[in-house]
Amino acid sequence: MNTLARIANPLRRAGTAAVAFPAVAAASARFMASKTVFVGNLSWSARHDDLRRLFEAYGPLESVRLMTERETGRSRGFGFVTFAEDTNADKAMQELDGKDFHGRPLRVNESTSDRRTENNSGSAFGGRPEQGGGSFGGSGLNDKSGGGGFLG
């Protein structure tokens, strides 16, 4: 739970958050109400603006991230859309999952948290924890190979 939520939740329960700390209460409400959805099976020709236009029809967006290849700038076939309100995200997931977009059926569902942040393992230099982290190796909690990279 973020700091704003830790401050605002007890105050909200006491009924004083909106009066005593309106900025904290408003920021906490925005954080608590937003929802991020995963959008997969995107065409490589998909662009950031295409994704934004598609999802804006369901409500205000906080962010749109289309994952692209570093060298070519081409779509990697997936992205994330964060809605300002979770009810809009739910409606978009229900209506867009399986819908044809640029010739491919979309996969739209609620985003899950990144595993690296959950178990605090893996290398600080990148890579997946279950694969030993990045180029310097690592010994994540799920690492079966005993490390990786040139230090493993």
TrEMBL record:
Domain RRM: 35-113
Protein name (database record): RRM domain-containing protein
Keyword RNA-binding: yes
Record bears the keyword RNA-binding: yes
One annotated GO molecular function: RNA binding
Native organism: Rhizophlyctis rosea
UniProt-listed InterPro entries: Nucleotide-bd_a/b_plait_sf (IPR012677), RBD_domain_sf (IPR035979), RRM2_NsCP33-like (IPR048289), RRM_dom (IPR000504), SLIRP/GR-RBP-like (IPR052462)
Superkingdom of origin: Eukaryota
Keywords: RNA-binding
Compositional bias (Gly residues): 129-152
Pfam families in the cross-refs: RRM_1 (PF00076)
Record region (Disordered): 95-152
